[in-house]
Amino acid sequence: MASLIRPNVLQMTPYLTGKPIEEVKRELGLDRVIKLASNENPIGPSPKAVEAVRKAAERMHIYPDGAAFELKEKISSKFGVPRNQILVGNGSDELIHLIGLLFLGKPTDEMIVGDPSFSRFDASAHLAPSKLVKVPLDSDFRHDLPAMARAITENTKLVFVANPNNPTGTIVYKNEVDAFVRDLPEHVTFVLDEAYYEFAVNEPRMPNSLDYLAQGKNIIGLRTLSKAYGLAGIRVGYGFAPAWVSDAIDRAREPFDVNSLAQAAAVAAFDDIEHLKQTVEHNTRGLATLTKAFEAVGARPIPSCANFVFADLGIEAKPVFEALLRHGVITRSGHALGDKNSLRVTVGTDEEMEIFAAALKEVLMTATV
Ligand code: PMP
Description:
The protein is of the alpha/beta class. It is built from 15 helices and 13 strands. Helix 8 links the parallel strand 5 and strand 6.
């Protein structure tokens, strides 16, 4: 009876998550499997967030605060943004989904994304269904903002840019975003997805969505606690947007989308400055380690401002991905991410990255692929 489902939904492909560790162990009969596939925090969550969740669990018979008052207060004071410009969601995935619902409705509506970029953006257009316009990244694997600006028509509703981009880890620079936002027509809303923002703090050319919001621009900035804050499993995303957007989100969202444990975890995690500092420091070292590992086998790692490295292997990545799996290392193959010769590897613990580097060398040097 699948014919009862709207055809555009049946044409969509379910989101491909990184392979779960237990599944790989079972399928390949391995005892030790490491996962460097989902851009998670190798240090783990803040101990303060874990403690807050333990406490909050005692009260899980009570519905969450649907207005997420304390969490929004925390975000408001931390970032200096009024409450009515703050969005929170069940992961930033939910916010991406809701933005699609808010702005796209007709088949003639258009949404512009980079290619390759984060695949959940595409889902918003497919669900509407509206027209998805993909603009290739430039030769440095960066978003080509001038080309994206040229792709805007009178039907364009949304432009999504992940900055840093997933899967490439590259950024668009502040001067480029300044120019793009300056020339953006009023009927277009610009979504700057800053899921990996915290890892790019040492990059002086990194723009900040908050600056454009303060200028009254038609922009939505998205952030998450899944990456640098280590809360991927409990699902909290947040964002900054003009008040008319947050008002519309409140009308469309589920009433209790951010659960009570997640709200408690997020408030505590925001206070753990030390955990964030350690995470970012470890990440900076980790990017250098992964870059070296790729260079050692003659691959071309793309300079990354995120918590993963995307490397052009110069050969098809899928067999390499599969051979690494047999060595107990889960990565993401470019064939699933829109670039078939590339592999994306997340910064892990020092030990995990050593295991990865050794496995990559063995796989590529002994030609087992
Ligand atoms: N945006 C980008 C660019 C991402 O890479 C991810 C994580 N895969 C998300 C959003 C979603 O993150 P969250 O866990 O907050 O839903």
